[in-house]
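Box S2. Input/output pair 1.
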Amino acid sequence: MRFLLVDRISNIESGESISGVKNASLSEDFFTHHFPQLPIMPGMLIVESMVQLGRWLIAHETNFECGATLTEIEDVKFRSYVAPGDQLLIHLSRISREDNESRFSCEARVDGALKARAKIRLHNFPLSQFEEPLQVRRMFNALYRPTDGKESPWRAVS
């Protein structure tokens, strides 16, 4: 993936919610032109980080048998800018699940201040159609650093 917009997965709650982190570094490609005199993270990349986090939740809860694609974005609100040096804390809570679709309420915050919120709908698909499940599991294991300390991030990949 060219733009991996989740640097760490910090919490998963029984397939119903997930939290993660995106560190906004000045070395990110998008800061070069958005905007040179006042670099800010594009709003749609904040939404994309939410989508990627939802995708990780779905992969994890299906034992890496399913991936997910975005089918709907609604009620997007951007409150203020995300700048280089900010640590974006993202949280998704599942609102509903029907057949192969899940709806999530999403928030992104920096230092407790709300930067963006949205509702997204993701559609599940068999992961093996597009990606190697073992590779996805390895990437998940590299990103998952639980804050509660209950599970070692360096567990074996089966």
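Box S3. Input/output pair 2.
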Amino acid sequence: MLNFEKQEVARQANNEIARRELLQFTKQTMPTYKSNWHHVSYANKLDQFIRGDIKNLMIFMPPQHGKSELSTRRTPAKLLGDNPDLKIGIVAYNHTIAAKFSRDIQRVITGEGYNDIYPQTTLNNQNVRTMDTYLRNSDEFEVVDKKGSLVSVGVGGGLTSRKLDIAIMDDLYKDAADAWSQVKREGVQDWYDTVLRTRLHNDSQQLLVFTRWHEEDLAGYLLKTEPEKWEVVLYEAIKTDNVTEDDPRELGKALWPEQHSLETFKICKRTTLLCLIASTNKTQHQKKGYCCQMAN
């Protein structure tokens, strides 16, 4: 076999793997991407969500540990590659952050490597707001010649007349202060119940990726009211809970020491130790370790 034929066979094989595995898809569309062990575990769980094996998934992880790159940038792009007729909603704590996610997703779809993997999923090459063509702007876009679309919205924003097959919610609280505010928590919960939930249908999927700062946040509310509907994966900043298949670290180990060492967490001025609360808190979701230990 000639060298260029071998290269073509290898290219096609890599593309096939990228269509099956989020981590390979990420590496092909972002050649500079570097992964830690927890990204492999995280991507495997997201693959189950993408395939539909998990309907509603919560993943708790500390900031700056790579959660949004896989869940909120690469996952929507891959979902629209696998099924360009999907209608996806991206939610963040405000409109600015949500719209930035939308722009990032568009860059993935129009960027290096994507068309080679998913040639049927394309976007309008012009940013347009009101034309008789496929919509594309910073808030939302439609897939050319398909039924699929993606809309981004901040908590409190409107989703009137929208139907969502998949809702991806990424950090619905700006910071710990927001999460500790009862008014803010009630606002997020009310918006979820009266706006987002009304846009879902029987087969809709939900992905909730959080840094947890308070036991009564939206995740806590959902785990209290409908725990049987959600699968939960926890990646603590510092391992305090039992060893699991998703997180096999020894107790006391940092999640990504090459980026955020144990010493870094120890010298932080303030630390929320929600997972330690679990030993005295009587609520079931706390006992199961659904909270995150995170330094601020």
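Caption for Box S3: DSSP finds twelve helices and nine strands in the chain. Confidence is low (pLDDT under 50) at residues 269-296.
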